[in-house]
Model the fold of this input.
Amino acid sequence: MQKPPTPPLEKRDWIAGLEKGLSIIEAFDDAWPRLTASQAGERCGLTRTAARRYLLTLAHLDYVATDGKLFWLTPRVLRLGQSYLESARLPRIVQPFLQRITAGTQEIAYVSVLDGDETVYIARNGSNRSMNTGFVLGARVPAQVTAAGMLILALGDPDQLELWLQAKTLKAYTSHAITSKDRLRVEFARIRANGWAISEQQLELNYRGVAVPLLDRHGDLVGGLNVSMPMGHESSEDAVKRVLPVLQETARAMRNLI
Done:
């Protein structure tokens, strides 16, 4: 999905402190759940002193906790993501349609969008399953390992996609993962030809996803509508025959409401 152009920003309107404060929050991840001021500074391109000031300010605002040496995020940070889910129109509109997909397929249904080169799950419906990398609401995963991410990438601008491919380092999350850029190009071409995507065992063994494009009333791509399911003994062909018509019909029904 192509982002709308970012309007130019006058230098006088730029607040560098806000940018740096947000970069401090984004410095924490699964590999770095706790950081010293020096580590935070290194990850954000700041001096230790500057990083410490931002961290102490965030601690004062209860977005960060500290033991005096290490810093870590608090649950208050979730308010930032929750604000999007509560204020954005798309997650609210799609929920009844996801319920329809779950009822028709008995699988977990999602709406996903692309943020950078990651798939972000902004709406879901269905019971939880014991996936090691379960797609909870707000989860972010590399786009190339999900059906929805592959679909959105494939249907985007071809020149931008090629630039993305050239710059991307492909990581293998399973023994079945696609790590060849030439093979990815073939997959993208197949998705463009078919108008839908399937991804199998790219992020989690024995799981597959099927996705169709979610278009607005103007025909613009706004995200991916997809289901995730255990593979079991069902063939790829049978799975597609079972869930694809439900996804396509639901996407068509949603189009005039987005």
Observations:
- The radius of gyration is 20 Å.
- Residues 14-76 form a domain with the Arc Repressor Mutant, subunit A fold (CATH 1.10.10.10).
- The longest helix spans residues 236-255.
